[in-house]
Amino acid sequence: MPKVSVEIPQELLDDLDEHVGDEGKFVNRSDAIRASIRKTLDMLDEIDERHGRVETDEAESH
Fold it and tell me: Where is the Ribbon-helix-helix protein CopG domain (predicted)?
């Protein structure tokens, strides 16, 4: 799996860390960041579909 390096503000990292670990939703930062990216991309795809910028599977079958 490729590695990516990003710079993020400390406040954002602190917020992320609240969701990581034994008491959090994610095992580690990488899992949390991957989940966030997936969710963001899904939301962007939904917005594009609503605005007719992406063909849906249904439209492609016609």
Answer: 4-41
Task: Look at residue 37 and give its three-state secondary structure.
Answer: helix
Q: How many residues does the chain have?
A: 62
- SS3 state of residue 20: strand
pLDDT digits (tens, 9 = 90+) for 8-53: 999 999 999 999 999 899 999 999 999 999 999 999 999 998 898 8
- Can you tell me the distance from the alpha carbon of 6 to that of 41, in angstroms, rounded to the nearest whole number? 18
Q: Which residues contact 8 (CB under 8 A, 6 or more apart)?
A: 16
Rounded CA-CA distance 7/5 in Å is 7
Asked if 21 contacts 14 with a C-beta cutoff of 8 angstroms, the reply is: no
